Amino acid sequence: xxxxxxxxxxQRYAQECVDASQGTGIFPSVTIAQAIIESxxxxxxxxxxxxxxxxxxxxxxxxxxxxVTANDNGNLRKFRKYASTSDSIKDHTYFLLRNGRYKTxxxxxxxxxxxxxxxxxxxxxSQSYAATLISVINKYNLKEYDTKKKSMNNKYxxxxxxxVSLIFSAYTIYQNLK
Length: 178
What we know:
mainly alpha; two-stranded antiparallel sheet; 7 helices; 57% helix; globular
């Protein structure tokens, strides 16, 4: 796949990253920055794997066990192969939530702290991984997607409250018809 422009990449993948982070402590800005770095703006997505997650024996509802072998800094390694990039994005969230070593990262109060915690937990081998993520987040104003996650969470609360009100109203009407 050819490398995408920043605007094309964000248009294609950002909302999926926001959606995958709902109900978690994951900042969409961090996930998007990871996808940008790990995939080279979409130019290197082997097996639909946006994040370079290796094929270990961990099960996942988004990964069926298939893998591709690819060169990783001079070493041949097995990487998860997905049916779609959407599955890869969802699996990235699942992977972080299921691996206890990322507990501190999931509890981070800022995207910057989350980046540093991911590096400290060994997410990537690069000693400048957190700094690179933070730089991408700032350069491309990715924190705007963290706000979208918050507003979506609020929408879900409003929808749930409306549903409860509707059920209560229907029950009241039913009781008055008896």
